[in-house]
Design goal:
- It is a single chain.
- This protein has 5 helices and 4 strands, in the order αββββαααα.
- The chain has 2 domains: about 60 residues, no CATH class; about 60 residues.
- The chain has about 140 residues and is of the alpha+beta class.
- A hairpin with a 2-residue loop joins strand 3 and strand 4.
- GO terms for molecular function: DNA binding; DNA-directed RNA polymerase activity; zinc ion binding.
- It holds the Pfam family Zn_ribbon_DnaG.
Amino acid sequence: MIEKLTSRLDGVKRTGPGRFVAICPAHDDKNPSLVVTEKDEKILFHCFSGCPPAEVLAAVALTFADLYPERPTYTKGRRAAQFNPYDVLKALARESGIVTLAAAQVSTGHPLTTADADRVALAHERLRDAALLMGIRL
């Protein structure tokens, strides 16, 4: 999955398992300032020059939706699966992170693409559904 991002970057160098540095495409980068990591099936990246994540993605023609798995499909009538609480918290943290990244992007005056807005709506839906399952009304 990390190849979706690293294959579009210049100056990519592996610095460890699932960890790379690269030239940031969002600014005139002379030395690699973008760190890209894949951890727990998530792609994490950070520009140490301060480029917003959405600008980094836009510079390589990707969106947040491209980096995160699509909505899972469920078969009707199946018995409810047992979920590991740790895995549930990780999933909720990922959805919260998507909302947080989008809020940060909008707060800096950068509009969301349609795909990003759709992914934020999905994250909101998932967080709302989780809250309802816990008996919390939002």
